[in-house]
Amino acid sequence: MPQPILNDDSPLLCSNCFEDEGLRIDANKIGHELSEECPNCKSTDGKKLTQKLIKGLAWRFFVSGTTIRCEYGAAPVIQCNEHHYGKSDIRPSSWLEADIKLIEGAAKIGFFHYGPRLWMIGEVEPLKDLQNESSRGGIIEQVLQEYPERSIASGTKFYRLRVNPNNPADPMQYDSPPLEFSGNGRLDSSELSVMYGSQDIDVCIHECRASTDDEIYVATFKTEKELRFLDLTQILEEDNTEFESLDMAIHMLFLAKSHSYEISRALAKAAKLAGYDGVIYPSFFSLIRTGGHPFETSYGLSLRRFHPEREKYADAYTIRNFALFGHPLKTKLVKTESINRLIITQVGYQGHFGPVEY
Asked: Which residue range or ranges hold the RES domain (predicted)?
């Protein structure tokens, strides 16, 4: 008897097909709620998965779920594609073996241990030069030349959050801290005070690591004049590879943890000396806020560089923060519009699963 012809929207599996609890939960999140019988397990209440959704589930669980963050950059341990169909060589936990066969057969893909291109884990020449004090200055000078100036109009609104301030009603409590208290953040140092702000209040909460136990206050500021910023969120037009990319170096720098602060502080001081009022920089929490995946590639090529709509792609996964140099409230570069107490009433987490062995 001939097999029925399936179109791209035909369910092949459902969330109840899987033995692994993480796969079940992830499949339930992305599957379609249809009353028809699953062609594989005959369940009627499982969320139904088309071939496209099964491929998405495979990427979510096995690729994103095995991605490891390095000092700079990140890369998955496992990849999957159609070229490895029937040639899978990973060694999963016993409870995943049947599930993997189901996914392979339905999506016509295979899983393999991924050897990432080395740029993905920080082998980017300008980034390596930034880590070396003797060559750092030359790259910072290149940053000042190649990244654009961005003018912020008078009257632009942004927010600054404080946790447990001594006098929350005093506007000056929301200005940059004195120099003796500077040097703990990404851009401030013992030589440069910085006022951090954002137009995204949720990001302000993340940046301050605020919790429900804290007394949290938010100051709303408006700029008093047009301000000049160095915009480090702009994608550079380059004709080199990821290995020589200044754009990739700065992108990785601001997604790195506190070991990178020495570099970003030097960059901030150079921008101040160049006459800027501050810098616009990507939040470390951009990917958590937007749901992005770090350093996405297609066959080893960076989507940030080669996506057909690369500027829209990068913009969708970037939250822009402001860093204003000096004491902008005291020097009347900004004014306080209002101060409010912020009460956290609900916290939600979104995530997905990945394998524990591979």
From this structure: 158-285
- Alpha-carbon dihedral angle through residues 142, 143, 149, 150, given to the nearest 10 degrees: 170
What average pLDDT is seen over the chain?
94
Domain ranges of the chain: 13-116, 122-342
Residue entry with tokens 């990973």: 90
* pTM value surpassing 0.70: yes
Instruction: Give burial (CB, 10 Å; 0-12/13-18/19+) of 33.
Output: exposed
Report d(CA 308, CA 97) in Å as an integer. Answer: 37
- Taking only the tens place, the pLDDT of each residue in 122-142 is 999 999 999 999 999 999 999
Tokens found for residue 12: 């092949």
Q: Are 66 and 82 in contact (CB under 8 A)?
A: no
Q: Which residues contact 21 (CB under 8 A, 6 or more apart)?
A: none
- pLDDT digits over 323-343, tens only? 999 999 999 999 999 999 999
pLDDT band at 298 (very low <50, low <70, confident <90, very high): confident
d(CA 255, CA 294): 9
Q: Give the residues across from 150 on adjacent strands.
A: 229
Alpha carbon distance 26, 292 (integer Å): 17
Closest CA to 63 of 94, 49, 32, 84: 84
Give the sign of the dihedral formed by CA 255, CA 260, CA 265, CA 267. Answer: negative
Beta-bridge mates of residue 78: 113
252 three-state secondary structure: helix
